[in-house]
Amino acid sequence: MDYDYKKLLDRAWDNLPEKVKSHERFEMPQVVTFLEGNQTIIKNLNEIADRLGRSQEHIFTYLLKELASRGSIEASRAIIQRPLRRDIINKKIEDYANEYVLCHECKKPDTKITELEGQKIIKCDACGGWWPFRRIK
Description:
Elements: H1 5-15, H2 18-21, E1 33-36, E2 39-42, H3 45-52, H4 56-66, E3 71-74, E4 77-80, H5 86-100, E5 111-116, E6 119-124, E7 130-132
Antiparallel strand pairs: 1-2, 2-4, 3-4, 5-6, 6-7
Helix pairs in contact: 4-5
């Protein structure tokens, strides 16, 4: 068995998914907010959800629990029932991405929520790693 390292390496590279081959840099989405009385309005929650590949509702539920507040989603904007600084919300979205989006092994955003033996997990399409899906309490 005479293997040529270069040929094996090329074959392995050809078999990788395109997502893994690309070297696009993932940038954390930033919120666009403004205050309206005692409410904070997030204007681009739908864009953030699209970028992270998760539902607006899940992200917003996480934000409300973490910020100990109430709120609602109306069309493409989210309303939080208290005044908050933009950097606080951005930090919470970064925390959300670290728990529910970015792979815990390879740190790539190529993950999806799926099931394994009846339990929800988050699985990475890039490296194959997975971890249990933590419910928002």
